[in-house]
Amino acid sequence: MTRGGSQRLTFVSQSLMSRLLRSMRLSRALSLLAPLAFAACLSGTDPVTFQNIPIESTTFSSNLNVNLAASTKLPSGMYYRDIIVGTGKTVATGDSIAVYYQGAFTNGQLFDQRLSPSPAFEFKLGANRVIPGWDEGLVGTKVGGVRQLIIPPSLAYGSSGSGPIPPYAVLVFNVTISNDFTAGP
User: Fold this and answer.
1) Residue 1: what pLDDT?
2) Which pick of 46, 81, 91, 184 has the fewest CB atoms within 10 Å?
3) How many CB atoms lie within 10 A of CB 164?
4) Average model confidence (pLDDT) for the chain?
């Protein structure tokens, strides 16, 4: 190989090396900037929040006997009303309770129920074993009582729904506190 050919080869390899380094720097810069650009596109959005349909704007089937004027509104936006005031112990967070219930959509269609004589549904109140609307709305109910819960999506199944429950569904439950009751610590 001639001396000139060697210099040309060295020049070509240096040129390629220079382009490769620039490309690597650009690639590194893009890998650092891409997450920032993506985050900037998402600014102002919160992927874990969802639409909270105001219960006051909801139309309820007459067979549900929902009466918001006679119900108590909690700071979370849910409502409750004691249809039958019980005469037994008062339910508190941490209590293990047994309930019978019916759950319906605002159009009156039942989506779930557990009624006597079947075994009552048992759970510890406030232990995240049920939807947040139950944990919040059943506190203060007395054994033997029937409480109606009108629960916004944010305290039920939110934007994802679950099984037969569609996203953003306002739910209406009539819950009876059974005599099977164990007070919490």
Assistant:
1) 45
2) 46
3) 12
4) 80
**What pLDDT digit, counting tens, does each position of 42-93 carry?**
344 333 333 456 899 899 999 999 999 999 999 999 999 999 999 999 999 9
Closest CA to 155 of 9, 8, 52, 80: 52
pTM for the structure as a whole: 0.70
Contact of 123 with 94, CB cutoff 8 Å: no
d(CA 147, CA 33): 54
**Does an H or E element contain 73, and which?**
strand 72-73
Place of tokens 């959005």: 45
- Other Cβ atoms closer than 10 A to 103: 21
Place of tokens 């989506």: 111
Q: Single out the residue of 128, 122, 110 nearest to residue 179, CA to CA.
A: 122
Token pair, residue 83, equals 């249809």
| Token pair belonging to 153 | 């999506």
Q: Which residues have a Cβ under 8 Å from the Cβ of 21 and sit 6 or more positions away?
A: none
Rg (CA), the chain: 30
What single-letter amino acid sits at 153?
Answer: P
Helix, strand, coil tally for the chain in percent (to 5): 30, 25, 40
Which residues contact residue 132 at a Cβ distance below 8 angstroms, ignoring those fewer than 6 apart?
76, 155, 156
pLDDT of residue 173: 98
